[in-house]
Amino acid sequence: MTKNETYKEIEVKIRIHQDSLDCLRKRLEDNGFRKVSPRSLEVNTLFDFPDRKIYTSGCTVRLRTYGTRHILTWKGPVKPDPELKIREEIETEISSREDGILILEKIGLQPVLEYSKFREIYRSIDKDKVEVCVDETRAGSFMEIEGSEEEINHISAIMGMSGSDYIKTSYVELLRQAGSGKEDQIK
């Protein structure tokens, strides 16, 4: 595996009706997934330079707080694919949100958008790299599957879904499309 493959994120989202979340959770557990993180608030802050150089290049710099964890992430541009969202991703855990913000601001980045959601995380008992997140956002509820193309297609099939249900759109764009009240814009 090359260094770039090590940092490759392959994922899709699938819209789930709020009424179906308990059924989804049970089906995940019945099909070999264990909950590794309970439903918790996740706050995501996106950073960019004043000229929006990161955004216009198709990349993202994000500071995520989930429970007591703080994760700094860089994401590269989305690669062309008809069904899956594929991009380079590098993440590292940091000691505090405040330190992360300070470091990013010291190199000239500023917070440009903040949004939150409730997330719970499941992992496959057989394949620890396969992750399914159940996300509740202002734009609706989603199942996000991250793994190889084969694993994503297998999991969606056992959940009664297929490629036609896949969403490659980011949560930022889904929230913009939903326009459901107050915008999460910072500056």
Structural class: alpha+beta
For the terminal residues, how far apart are their CA atoms? 40 Å
Strand order of the largest sheet: 1-5-4-3-2-6-7-8
Q: What is the overall number of helices?
A: 6
CA-atom Rg in angstroms: 17 Å
* Overall pLDDT confidence: 91
Strand content: 35-45%
- Percentage of residues assigned to helices: 10-25%
Number of strands: 9
**What's the story with the biggest beta sheet?**
8 strands, antiparallel, barrel
Low-confidence runs: none
Shape: globular
**Order of helices and strands, N to C?**
HEHEHEEEHEEEHEH
Give an account of the 3D structure:
There is one protein chain. By secondary structure, this protein is an alpha+beta fold. Helix content is 25%, strand content 43%. The chain has six helices and nine strands; from the N terminus they run αβαβαβββαβββαβα. The chain has helices spanning 3-6, 21-30, 53-56, 97-106, 149-158, 171-178; strands at 8-16, 33-48, 60-66, 69-75, 85-94, 110-124, 131-137, 140-146, 166-167. It has an eight-stranded antiparallel beta barrel with strand order 1-5-4-3-2-6-7-8, surrounded by four helices.
